[in-house]
Amino acid sequence: MADLGFVHTFEEPATTDAPVLLLLHGTGGNERDLLPVARMLAPDAGVLSPRGKVLERGMPRFFRRLAEGVFDLDDLRRRTIELAAFVAAAAAHYGFDPRRVVAVGFSNGANIAASLLLLEPGTLGGAILFRAMVPLVPDPLPNIPGTPVLLSNGHLDPLVSAAETERLAALLREAGADVTLAWQQAGHELTEGDIERARGWLSAGLQASGLIDS
Fold first, then answer.
1. Alpha carbon 184 to chain centroid distance?
2. 93 flagged as catalytic
3. H, E, C per residue of 25-80
4. For residues 206 and 214, what is the distance between their CA atoms, to the nearest angstrom?
5. Of 17, 97, 178, 188, which residue is the catalytic one?
């Protein structure tokens, strides 16, 4: 398998109209962590799953942080551009439609997916963000009209407050995204409720946006 700048795994979509899920793991994960989630969300979807290149005490991440919830914004910007270039290179190499790429990110992976929406808006056709927070606030905001985004966070999350979740939803909506905010009675962990909500949203939301055929 070609490296393309990231250790990664790729699986072709079963049909030409199926999305390609860009799987972005949380801190300490790897390129295989979210593969079972992808199969539950959309069995026919393709999968592009990179491993984060930043190590924090030996644990892979997609960008550096200075403390819990305090991001190294310079590194975040650089890593976001790098990830966008990887997605474009992978689309050319593997021959999939880059317009059908939908991010599925958890925690650190969800944060860099949100950064892709805000800094590299042509990279994603949509996004599922599990336990995300505001990565940064670009000035000016991008124009991402109608881009479908599911933001699924936990009422009991000790790391991401309800106010932070609402702030991210508002920021994406201000940029024009079609944001669905879903709440789980959960903490920072991924739950069955997250998967069920995302599975229904993925099918209905992508059909409505024209990213998959009905």
1. 18
2. no
3. CCCCCCCCCCHHHHHHHCCCCEEEEECCCEEECCEEECCCEEECCEECHHHHHHHH
4. 9
5. 188
Active site residue 33: no
The domain limits of the chain are 8-209
**What is the predicted pLDDT for the residue at 79?**
98
- pTM greater than the 0.90 cutoff: yes
CA distance 116 to 81: 8
Exactly one of 49, 107, 115, 152 is catalytic; name it: 107
Which residue, chain included where needed, has tokens 């599975």? 199
Residue 208: pLDDT band by 50, 70, 90 thresholds? low
Please say if 17 is a catalytic residue.
no
- CATH number attached to the domain at 8-209: 3.40.50.1820
CB-based contact 75:54 (threshold 8 Å): yes
